Structure formats: structure tokens, C-alpha cells
Amino acid sequence: MEFLGLIGYGIAAIAYLVFFLLLMVARQKTFASQLVIYACLTTLLSVAVCALQVYQSFSLQLTFIFEAIKIAFWSLLFISVNTGLQSFGQFIANQQVKKYLLIWLGLSVFGAFSVWVLQKYEWLFIVLLALNLFALVNLEQVFRNHQQQLRWALWPLTIGLGCLFIFDFVMYSQASMINRLDFDFWYARGFIAAAVMPLLLLSSKRLKDCSPDLFISRDVVFYSSMIVFSGIYLLILAFSGYLIRYIGGQWSDMLSTVFMVLGLLALVGLLIANSLRAKIKVFIGKHFFANKYDYRVEWLKLIAAIEKDDSNNLCVSACKAMGECLQVNYCAFIKVNGSELNIIYQGELNLSEQVLSQLKAIHKYSEKQQWIIDVREYERYPQRYPNLIIESALLLNSHIDLIVPTYSQQQLTGYFVLPGPQEKPMLNWEDRDFLFAVSKQLGNYLSLQNAQVKLAESQQFSVFHRMSAFVLHDLKNIQAQLSLITKNANQHQHNPEFVADVFSTVESASERLNKVVVQLRKKGKEAPKDNKTEINVGELISKSVDICNQDNPQVICSCDEKVLILVEQERLLNVFIHLIQNAQQACKHDGWVKVNGNIGINGLIITIEDNGQGMSSEFINEQLFKPFSTTKGNAGMGIGVFEAKQFIEEMHGQISVESTVGKGSLFTIKLPLGEVSKESE
Asked: What is the pLDDT of residues 202-245, one digit of tens each?
């Protein structure tokens, strides 16, 4: 066997010497080609030292040193190709190169220490096993990272070095478990090294440029992770074999062998288990890789699809947006109404009674599972949908492949029913996540739009109610004027002045009713304002007092001077009447109400004072001047003071209130001098 080993290593040394000379003659200028030369040189030195060791029978420690150097150069070559390094400066500055050199140096020092100081060869074998594992992982990434047009140049290199590293990996795994090197393997590796040299030579001739743009696919990460997982598993087996040998005594060899075989069988079983492979692939895709979908782009596309649709039906817009996201032409929407399903929109899909019955079964399942139903997947793998029983053929014949639930505020609101994309026979986990995100956004869109429709309807009713309140308030004032006529008709019907006043009052009521009619025709828009006329404020106050004095308590009026003001007479009269009536209603029958109008320093000042029940400061500050706030309960509309404040401020005046609960209130109206003129009696 030693003679065969010498022949094998000798042939390998000659082969790699020829390989080295050919590389030196070709002398390609790329940095990767230079690293190939260095890696070839270290491989030549390694097999030459192995041949010399077999011939001279000296310690294997020297050969292991060259083995570690050889692995380092090939690994550095793989790293440089993976990262696209183009020069020695980039090579020195690269972080991956630095990390690998640091790890390699640490493992090498630990291996040397374990042999020369601790005399533990099994640790050295584990170090070489780890270095070979790292080289295998990087070699696999070199092949998978490159585009298809460059793989034809890399596959001979991948196969050749892969065979070499895998052979060494198995050899060192066995050595670490049984604590000695199997020399049958050791002598055979020379022939293997010689046999793979032509493959390396072929790749070196094809490899003109090792710096194309790289695309790291998910499969690369997945298969590399599986290799790392396998290597770590074998390292654990090696360490466990060492412990068995350390503890087992004379049975240690047999126990190590049995443990290795059982461990390898368990590893193979785990690697070929589809469920485990699928879970690992999903885990890697979710946590170690960028998403297949650019959600920023998809979000903008979804918004554009919703905006460009001119349909007045919200569900139609949502269905078209969902269809565009999946690039399908048909989509239907079914609304969940308790336990019932209502077809809101079906487009060109045929949602017959039979189909609807199947969807009801899916609804019961989805309420519990909250899962997208892929009918194509169900037909092939029904076990993935436990406790779901449907007629998949019926749905597929109706072009229904996907049933996507949509939620709003964590409540199931409906389903999008649509065919699946033709290029995807089944959905994967990422497609499902994407569809859930789209359906969630569309569910919120539908919920928001429905809420806006209801809000608009509520606002329309609110406008109508406010308009009704203002109309009723005007009618109440007109009714008060007309009731004054009926009360005094029997006593003063033969009085010419009373008759004239009646006609004047009826005319005023008619004008105000015409304004109400105009306001109703304009659907609550503000009615045209009266033209301002110059009136005597004292006479207007006296008129309002006469109207209000038909009720108790009687109003005391004091307005000595003749004050002329340019104002809308009817509106100001309404303000006076309303404020005086409020004061009367706040008082008892034996109470009093006083109205005063005088010229002050800053303009006309009108006060309305009573000794009624008063108002709290909180009510004055927060509710008094707001519409529909009143202290009268159902007897008042709560808009009189609001209208008074609006009118006074339109005249650039001010209205203020002082009140004490249980003692009374004082309303003060101030109008600027610019609106006022004074004439002597």
C-alpha cells in the first residue's frame, strides 16, 4: 500500500507541476488567475510533501501544515471570485478575506497546539475537517452565484475540487471519530488528486474573466446552509466519537463505527425529509434574504390601480386592483354578513349556487384558520388543508383558483375570488404573504370608503337638521308675532291704529315666511340679506318690548335718546326679541327684566338684564354661543343666542354675558360708533 501511495502522490506531483508550468506560460493578467497559480503551487507542494513522507516515513505533521496552506489558498480564491475582487489592494482590504484569514490562523494555531503540546491528533483532524467544510461551502457558492453563461467554465473546477475536498472531508471525519488516520484513504488520495487535475486545467483555460455581476439566489443560500448544517452535524459526530473512544475502552472502535453509521443515517434522513427542507427554506427566505416583492413598488401600483378606476362601485375598484396585482383578468368580491355570504360583484366569473355552497364551506374553514385557499394546491395536497372538504374540480372548472380573505380591524369582512396566475401552479409562502398584505390594504380601503359614504350621509342629515332648526326658530318668532294679534284682537279690533299695526305685522310675517321658503329652496344656503336701512334703535327696542310684554314678567324699557343706526331691521329686531324672551323665561312671574340703550364712549351700548335663574360660567364659556345648546330642555332649539352673536359680529360689534347662578344675567351689546349717528330730540 505504501508503494501505491508513493506512486499516487508522485503522479499527482508531476501532474500539478505540469499544471503550474502551463499556468505560468499562459500568464493571464486577471487577479483570479494569479490566485489560481498560487493555489496550484500550494497543491503541488502539498502532494510533493505527501510523496516524500511516504518515501521517507517521517511524521505527518509537516504534511498537515501544507494541507492547511493549500486549503487556505483555494478558499481565498473562492472568496475573491464570490466578491468580485479585481486587485491585490481590494483583496487586502476586503472584510471577508480578513475574517477568513483570522479564523484560519486561529484554527491552525489550535491544531498545532493540540498536536505539539497536548498530543491530541483528534483535535487536528477536527480542525482540518472544519477547513475543508468552509472550502466546500465557498466552492458551492462560486458555482451557484454566477450566471448561466459562466457556469460552463466553472463546472470542471467545481467537480474536480469538490471531489478532492469531499474525499478529505470524509477521511478527516472518520479519523476524528476513531482517533487515527485510515492510511488506505491516505494513500488513495494521491490518485484522486491526480485524476482531478485535468478538470482544473480545463476550467483555467475557460476562465478568462471571473468578475461578472453576481446574483445571490435563494437556492444558493439554502443549499449552502444545508452544507453548513451537514458539516456542523458531522463535526458533532466527530466530537461524540472522540468521547465514546475516551470512555468506551476496548469497545471504543466498534462503538465509534456504529455511532458514525447511525449518525450518518440520521443525517441523510433529515436532509431528504421534505417537511424539514421546506421549513428551512422558508426560514432562510424570511430571515436571511430580501423579499421577492418590492413592497414599495407594489404599494404604488396598488394605489395607481385604485385611482385610475372610474367605477362608482367601491368593490369593483377593489376587485380590479386585486386582479392587477396578480395579473389576472377576473375577480369577484363576496361580502361576509354574519354567517351569510353576499355576492357584491362577480364580473365575468360564474358564481353559481353550487359554487356559492363550496364557498360557504371554505368560509367556515377560513373563519378558524385565517388562511388563503389555493384550490390547485388543495387538489394536489389536500392534507395541507385539514378538515376542509370541497369539490375542487367544480371550483377549478369555474376558473376559481384562489379565495383570499380580507380583514378590517381584525374582522373578516369578505373574500376576493379569482383565478390564479398561469405562470404559478401554486402559491408559495411569499406569494401568500404578499396577497395577505394586498387584501388587508383593500379591506381597509373598502372600510374607509364605506365610512366616508356614511359620514357624508350623516353630514347631509346634519345640514338638514340644522336647516330645520333655523326654520323652526324663524317660524316660532313669526308665530309669536301672530299670537299677539289674536290675543289683542277682541279688545282692540275697532281701533284703527291696532288694525294698521296688524297689517304691518302680517306683512312682516309674510316677508319672513318668503325668506324661509327661499332658504328651503336653496337647501339650507344662506338666504339673501336685507338691505341696510337707517332706523331708530329706541323705536325698535320699544317694538320688541311690546311684542314680548304679552308674557310675564313685564319688561321695563329705558332708551331716552333718539339713536339712528344703519342696520338690517328685521334681523336686529329678532335679536332683541330673542334675548328679551330668554330673560323672561329665566325669571319667575314676579321677576323683572330691564332693557337699556345708550350712547357710550365707544359706541352704542344695549343691555338686557334680569333677575332669573342665571347661568354657570362653564355653560357660558363652553355652550352658550354654540348652536343647539340650551338650558330650556325640549322647549328651546339652542340657536337664538348663536344667531345673535353672528349678527352682532357681522356689524363689527360685540356681545358679552355676565351671570350668576340664582341671581340673574346681564347681556351687553356694543355697536361701534361708525355704524351709529345721534340726533337730538
From this structure: 777 665 544 333 334 444 444 445 555 555 555 565 556 556 55
- Among 352, 343, 395, 348, smallest CA distance to 373 is for 395
Closest to 341 in 3D by CA, of 453, 291, 416, 278: 416
- Give the residue ranges of the chain where pLDDT is below 70: 1, 26-29, 144-153, 205-295, 309-312, 423-424, 429, 457, 460-474, 476-477, 480-481, 484, 519-531, 560-561, 627-639, 673-681
Torsion of the alpha carbons at 656, 660, 665 and 669, rounded to the nearest 10: -10
pLDDT tens-digit series, residues 138-193 = 787 777 666 555 666 677 778 888 888 888 888 887 777 777 777 777 888 888 88
* Residue entry with cell 483555494: 74
**CA 304-308-309 angle, 5° bins:** 120
| Contact (CB, 8 A) for 280 and 225 | yes
3-state class of 335 per DSSP? strand
Task: Indicate if the alpha-carbon torsion angle 75, 78, 83, 89 is positive or negative.
Answer: positive
Residue type for position 636: G
Q: Where are the domains of the chain?
A: 2-212, 216-290, 295-454, 531-679
**553: its cell numbers:** 314678567
| C-alpha cell recorded at residue 204 | 483555467
pTM over 0.85: no
Phi-psi region of 371 (alpha: psi -120 to 50; beta: other; left: phi over 0): beta
Which pLDDT value is given to residue 222? 45
CATH number for the region 2-212 comes to 1.20.1070
Is the N-terminal amide bond of 553 cis, ω within 30° of 0?
yes
pLDDT of residue 481: 67
Predicted pLDDT of residue 399: 85
Fold match flag (295-454 vs 531-679):
no
Cell of residue 89, nine digits: 489592494
What burial class does residue 172 get, using C-beta atoms within 10 Å of its C-beta: 0-12 exposed, 13-18 middle, 19+ buried? buried
CB contact at 8 A, 537 and 564? yes
Provide the sign of the torsion angle of the four alpha carbons 132, 134, 139, 140, taken in this order: positive
Q: What are phi and psi of 44, to 5 degrees?
A: -60, -45
535, β-bridge pairs: 565
List the CATH code of the domain at 531-679. 3.30.565.10
Instruction: Tell me the three cell numbers of residue 264.
Output: 450518518
Q: Does domain 295-454 have CATH number 3.30.450.40?
A: yes
